[in-house]
Amino acid sequence: MFFFIISLFFIFLFIDFIHPLDTKIEYSTIVMAKDSSILETYLSKDSKWRMKTELYEISPTLKKTLIFKEDKYFYSHIGVNFLAISKAF
Fold first, then answer.
1. Signed CA dihedral, 45, 46, 47, 51: sign only
2. Whole-number Å distance between alpha carbons of 33 and 14
3. Closest by alpha carbon to 73, among 85, 61, 62?
């Protein structure tokens, strides 16, 4: 069992080395006035609206709604929901 876990770890490291995740996010450009009001916004390079937002700027209601719709078991698993993975197969 130990050998299996170690093997999986090295397989994941190898896959990550071959195909690393692109962690650089291109945000939309926002032109602001001196008083911090928004003058103009532009799409990102891939034609998406991506605004950098801090966690405290998101309302608690929106957070609860997203968790409920996306992963209602969010607070009851360790980061991987094995039940959801098994349902996918």
1. negative
2. 47
3. 85
Domain range summary for the chain, segments of one domain joined by +: 22-52, 53-89
Q: Render pLDDT for 25-80 as a digit per residue (tens, 0 to 9).
A: 889 999 999 998 999 999 998 899 999 899 999 999 999 999 889 888 888 888 88
CA distance 68 to 75: 10
